[in-house]
Design a protein that fits this description.
180 residues, mainly beta, 6-stranded antiparallel β-sheet, 6-stranded mixed β-sheet
């Protein structure tokens, strides 16, 4: 696996080694030894999968302390624009966003540490999105930032008339509402 740092501190792109032959392909999507060797000492406790259609925007989600989650995300079918926002108040990149195209073709993954809001938009006809979490989902600690917060200036790559966003996500406040 190749690990690449991003402009946002502690946010890492992971590219697995893919073995292709006449039968198809094989890859490791996670290897605890590799993570440990790179001081990425996470203990994942929950795997999630989401299926969505073109135009769906999910996020920007996070859980408030002490139930924050580190996530390892990837797309196993289709294509999505993955977006994160740094919510760590002492970070040099607080309030900054980062996006990356994740797809079944490029097989890239993103390691998102605690302290980031996360979301994605579906760019293919259908998408299956997978993520590991190092903390269990805790409904009372769920929170979010409005995905269209103009101060974040996120291009979700979906025309406005084709965007499908839940009422719940549209009712989250902007980032300036929070006191992180």
């Amino acid at each position: 696996m190749k690990l690449t740092k991003t402009p946002l501190e502690d946010l890492i792109i992971i590219e697995p080694k893919v073995h292709i032959d006449s039968r198809g392909y094989f890859m490791e999507s996670y290897n605890k030894n590799l993570f440990d060797q790179n001081h990425l000492n996470y203990h994942f406790v929950q795997d999630n999968e989401s299926q969505s259609e073109f135009g769906v925007i999910r996020g920007l989600h996070f859980q408030i302390p002490p139930f924050q989650q580190t996530k390892l995300v990837r797309v196993s079918y289709g294509e999505a624009l993955d977006v994160v926002v740094d919510l760590r108040p002492n970070s040099k990149t607080f309030g900054k966003s980062f996006s990356i195209l994740l797809s079944m073709e490029n097989k890239k993954q993103l390691l998102i540490p605690k302290g980031f809001a996360h979301g994605y938009s579906v760019l293919s006809e259908r998408c299956i999105f997978n993520y590991k979490c190092d903390e269990f989902y805790h409904a009372p600690s769920e929170s979010g930032i409005h995905p269209m917060d103009t101060s974040l200036n996120i291009d979700w790559m979906i025309p406005i008339e084709k965007q499908i966003i839940s009422d719940k996500d549209l009712n989250w406040p902007g980032i300036k509402y929070y006191n992180f």
